[in-house]
């Protein structure tokens, strides 16, 4: 019969790695897995529990899944299936540092046969995140600790986005699957990552004469029509030409950080907006939906093409 001994992190985590240089989340997880796999006894059964204090379930699941993949590829350990861990997930108790309590460690070992438990925590520190992971040998009460400073990048921001799945569904009508003409929206720049204080300029191309509506979706899933906004705005675009919009204007990108979207819809004739919001709301305010009506008959119009462009705003390194 196995015996389980209580442990304390101060006394029983003599082997640790600490990286002060900021790295991406993916690099931090690889570094953590490599450090553990190098020092842990081979052939052990490992339970990867998760990460306490993760701001979203998506971030927690990502950390578990990526560590699981690294250990699986290594082949020197047996990884306990996550479906089995879900049976006892609600009963897990963590200590302040993010490692699993003695009681939970013993329970996991008893039910699932785990010999090593990997747990930890992730939290924001200044302009970065700190990832602390522990690998504990249950029977001996000893283990290893790995600490990484994680930079805020596109991957991390998307995982921190609590409305990410809802936002993805909002993007579906703009995938361009039913386009009757070619419509593209790009930017003037080398990539789609921008730092606080940089500018974004949109370049839009249509293969046929049409009229455009441009919508902005911010990191919090708020929707705002940014073109046309007034009578002087010319929504018309000549077929076969690339136009910088809105009218040779650049957008200043600033905090809050995260992934945002530009959505473009093309129509085969002039249109007018009918707000689906209280009448007192002006176009300078954020509105969740605007119907597009044909100017002559005031019947609702369907776009002949759609396109989208996504970009991420990051804090300056």
Chain-wise SSE layout:
Layout (H helix, E strand, L loop, with lengths): L8 H4 L2 E9 L1 H15 L5 E4 L8 H18 L3 E2 L2 H5 L15 H11 L3 E10 L2 E10 L4 E9 L3 H7 L3 H8 L11 E5 L5 E3 L3 E2 L1 E5 L3 E8 L5 E5 L8 E2 L3 E5 L5 E2 L5 E10 L3 E5 L14 E5 L10 E10 L3
Parallel strand pairs: 1-6, 2-3, 2-4, 8-19
Antiparallel strand pairs: 4-5, 5-6, 7-10, 9-15, 10-14, 11-12, 11-13, 11-16, 16-19, 17-18
CATH superfamily of the largest domain: ABC-type transport auxiliary lipoprotein component
- How far apart the termini lie comes to 53 Å
Q: Widest sheet: strand order?
A: 1-6-5-4-2-3
Secondary structure tally, helices? 7
The percentage helix is: 10-25%
The main sheet comes to: 6 strands, mixed
What are the secondary-structure elements, in order, as H or E? Answer: HEHEHEHHEEEHHEEEEEEEEEEEEE
- Residue-averaged pLDDT: 79
What is the structural class? alpha+beta
- The CATH topology of the largest domain is Rossmann fold
Number of domains: 2
Poorly predicted spans: 1-14, 276-289
Describe what you observe in this structure.
The protein is 21% helix and 35% strand. The protein is elongated and about 80 Å long. Strand 5 and strand 6 (142-150) form a beta hairpin. It is of the alpha+beta class. Helix 2 packs across helix 3 (57-74). It is built from seven helices and 19 strands.
What labels would you give this structure?
317 residues; alpha+beta; Rossmann fold; Immunoglobulin-like; 2 domains; six-stranded mixed beta sheet; 19 strands; disordered N terminus
């Amino acid at each position: 019969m196995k015996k389980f001994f209580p442990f304390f992190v101060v006394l029983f985590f003599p082997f640790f790695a600490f990286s002060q240089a900021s790295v991406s989340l993916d690099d931090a997880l690889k570094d953590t897995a490599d450090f553990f796999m190098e020092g842990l006894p081979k052939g052990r059964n490992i339970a990867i529990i998760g990460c306490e204090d993760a701001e979203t379930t998506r971030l927690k699941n990502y950390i578990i899944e990526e560590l699981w993949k690294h250990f699986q590829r290594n082949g020197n350990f047996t990884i306990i299936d996550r479906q089995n861990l879900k049976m006892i997930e609600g009963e897990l108790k963590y200590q302040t540092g993010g490692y699993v309590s003695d009681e939970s460690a013993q329970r996991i070992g008893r039910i699932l046969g785990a010999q090593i438990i990997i747990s930890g925590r992730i939290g924001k520190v200044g302009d970065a995140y700190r990832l602390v992971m522990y690998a504990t040998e249950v029977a001996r009460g000893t283990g290893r600790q790995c600490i990484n400073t994680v930079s805020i990048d596109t991957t991390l921001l998307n995982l921190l986005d609590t409305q990410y799945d809802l936002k993805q569904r909002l993007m579906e009508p703009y995938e361009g699957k039913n386009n009757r003409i070619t419509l593209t929206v790009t930017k003037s720049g080398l990539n789609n990552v921008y730092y606080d204080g940089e500018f974004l300029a949109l370049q839009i191309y249509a293969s046929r004469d049409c009229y455009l509506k441009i919508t902005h979706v911010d990191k919090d899933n708020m929707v705002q029509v940014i073109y046309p906004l007034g009578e002087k705005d010319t929504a018309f675009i000549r077929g076969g030409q690339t136009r910088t919009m809105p009218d040779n204007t650049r957008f200043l990108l600033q905090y809050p950080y995260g992934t945002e979207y530009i959505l473009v819809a093309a129509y085969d004739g002039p249109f007018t907006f009918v707000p689906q919001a209280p009448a007192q709301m002006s176009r300078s305010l954020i509105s969740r939906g605007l119907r597009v009506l044909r100017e002559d008959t005031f019947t609702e119009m369907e776009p002949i093409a759609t396109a989208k462009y996504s970009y991420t705003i990051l804090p300056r390194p």
